[in-house]
Design brief:
The chain has 278 residues and is of the alpha/beta class. The protein has two domains: 20-108, Ribosomal protein L30/S12 (60s Ribosomal Protein L30, Chain: A, 2-Layer Sandwich), CATH 3.30.1330; 116-277, Alpha/beta knot (3-Layer(aba) Sandwich), CATH 3.40.1280. It is built from nine helices and ten strands. It has helices at residues 43-51, 68-77, 89-95, 116-126, 141-153, 171-176, 192-200, 238-243, 261-277, and strands at residues 39-41, 56-62, 83-87, 104-108, 131-136, 158-162, 186-189, 205-215, 225-230, 246-249. The chain has a six-stranded parallel β-sheet with strand order 7-6-5-9-8-10. The chain has a four-stranded mixed β-sheet with strand order 1-4-2-3.
């Protein structure tokens, strides 16, 4: 059983696809959409934001719209790392505050993303082996913010998040990080599995958090390491888990056998700190 969060409906995009052509369709509303101060509504507004170089995390487009300005927006966003989702008009209506979304609403990032090289540069500056926290589809912005805060205080050199099915750097994330976002590099990548392969080439080993793993005290978590924390409900995906070198669990003594994702990240991060300091 994977670590999970209770009391939240976190079903954004991951369960909605029935075939490849529907991969970005979704009729469910996620927590990460509730950030009106990070939203841009309307075609011209979104185009101007793109031209101005603003970082766009997600774009929600009404199903069936493929006309000139929509096609232009999609074209300009190719290769940018922006997640594009096609949704029903009713969902856009529910998200809209202006009532004039014109079939498109964009979610912008409150902070700029870093590059993977920035993480390695920070580790080199501190003269420490790299320590990276990788998040596999963490959807709750409060969890993401809390994990960034934990990453900072435990000395991790950066956090990596995926492009799809995950919270971006919204205002809620910034608040929940308690300022840590200003000091901890956060990198957004298209494919977590591929990124792990690339980081292995740079000398990292990877520990995946899962209830079926070996107790964390029995695992060697020293040296250059990446800690992988999974989705609040379903844990680390199978493909990502298969890339990891260790499957690590937290000993459980109570009647329940799950932890909030950010709490699990904190416990495992500090076990890494403990082992690195011995």
């Amino acid at each position: 059983m994977a670590y999970e969060i209770f009391g939240n409906d976190l079903v954004e995009l991951r369960a909605s696809s029935k075939n490849p052509s529907d991969i970005n369709k979704d009729d469910n509303k996620s927590n990460s959409e509730n950030e009106s101060n990070d939203r841009i509504e309307g075609r011209n507004s979104v185009l101007e934001a793109i031209k101005a170089g603003r970082t766009i995390d997600k774009v929600f487009i009404q199903d069936g719209l493929r006309d000139g300005s929509i096609s232009s927006i999609i074209s300009k966003l190719k290769g940018s790392g922006t997640s594009i989702s096609f949704v029903k008009k009713q969902r856009l209506d529910a998200m809209s505050e202006t009532g004039h979304h014109q079939g498109i609403i964009a979610q912008t990032a409150s902070y700029e993303y870093s590059e993977i090289d920035d993480i390695f540069a920070l580790a080199k500056k501190r003269n420490e082996p790299p320590f990276i926290i990788i998040l596999d589809e963490i959807e709750d912005p409060h969890n993401l913010g809390a994990i960034i805060r934990t990453a900072n205080v435990c000395g991790a050199h950066g956090v990596i998040i995926p492009k799809h099915h995950a919270s971006g750097l919204t205002a809620t994330v910034v608040r929940a990080s308690a300022g840590a976002i200003n000091f901890t590099p956060v990198v957004k990548v298209t494919n977590i599995s591929k990124t792990i392969d690339e980081l292995k080439q740079r000398g990292l080993w990877f520990a995946c958090a899962d209830m079926d793993g070996d107790p964390m005290y029995k695992c060697n978590l020293t040296g250059s390491i990446g800690l992988v924390i999974g989705n609040e409900g379903s844990g680390v995906s199978r493909l990502v888990k298969e890339k990891c070198d260790y499957i690590v669990s937290i000993p459980m003594k109570g009647e329940i056998d799950s932890l909030n994702a950010s709490v699990a990240a904190g416990i495992l991060a500090y076990e890494i700190v403990r082992q690195r300091s011995i």
